[in-house]
């Protein structure tokens, strides 16, 4: 993020989750330090799939705060992780707030990483880092939704920066610095198109997919996006001229940079349409990857 910023004393939190398969049931052992917790394990699909909600009671991070989540999944385990609300990077007077997540999947493990959005408040300084390791036969899908400012409240992102780091070790790496003052990046049609919501969704495998499998996953995402777009057009009474619009999403696209990952990217003016798009793609990928319907996390149904 340019020059290294001074570290201020702030909240530090650490959560470690270790999952093992015991008699066909995915069980968890958790250890935490500081303001980071996990709620009671849920099993809405039966004993094989464990659903956990990660909770940060303070609700956000200010300059000097640092949170770390480490997830270790044993062979054959199935886990779904989500959060009860948005992560928030608040205004900083100089020091950086840091959130680091490490997800490590052993052979044949299956993970869904489904956090709510990350809100970057005006004048924040933030590092948001996600690192993933996939063993042979492991599979996952997940997303990252970053909102610059609070567009729903009319609060723009005028100062500050967010450094994003998304990595699947040895497979895929995306790293970018989103600076409020970088008008070229933020306004250009080759950049963020003036949109405050920058979102990425992916599915990945520790074992390379065949070409036809990758194409099927891309096509499934495109068809899901088309269905969402049709619903959005019907609800609004017509399409918006001059935009690649998918139910309120300004632009989206699907790529497969290599044989182990398929990536969907989206830009939007609000979080809600991106969330609807990603939920539809999640359902499509569940059918394509695992031949089953996607069960919504318990919090989404409350």
Task: Please supply descriptive tags for the structure shown above.
17 strands, disordered N terminus, ten-stranded mixed sheet, 302 residues, alpha/beta, seven-stranded mixed sheet, globular, 42% strand
How many strand segments?
Answer: 17
Spatial gap, N to C terminus: 39 Å
Report the helical percentage: 10-25%
- Helix-and-strand structural type: alpha/beta
Note the quaternary state here: single chain
Order of helices and strands: EEEEEEEEEEEEEEHEHEEH
| Major sheet attributes | 10 strands, mixed
Strand content: 35-45%
Question: How many distinct domains?
Answer: 1
The coarse silhouette is globular
| Weakly predicted, low-confidence segments | 1-7, 236-245
Taking all residues together, what is the mean pLDDT?
91
What is the C-alpha radius of gyration, as a whole number of Å?
19 Å
User: How many helical elements?
Assistant: 3
Describe the structure.
- The protein has 302 residues and is α/β, with parallel strands linked by helices.
- The protein has one domain (12-301).
- It is 17% helix and 42% strand.
- It contains three helices and 17 strands.
- Strands 3, 4, 6, 7, 9, 10, 12, 15, 16 and 17 form a ten-stranded mixed β-sheet that branches.
- A hairpin with a 2-residue loop joins strand 16 (249-258) and strand 17.
Give a concise summary.
This protein is α/β, with parallel strands linked by helices.
Topology of helices and strands:
Elements: E1 12-22, E2 25-33, E3 37-38, E4 49-55, E5 66-73, E6 78-82, E7 87-89, E8 97-105, E9 110-114, E10 118-120, E11 124-134, E12 139-148, E13 160-168, E14 172-179, H1 183-187, E15 197-205, H2 211-236, E16 249-258, E17 261-268, H3 271-290
Parallel strand pairs: 1-5, 4-6, 5-8, 6-9, 7-10, 8-11, 9-12, 10-12, 11-13
Antiparallel strand pairs: 1-2, 3-4, 12-15, 13-14, 15-17, 16-17
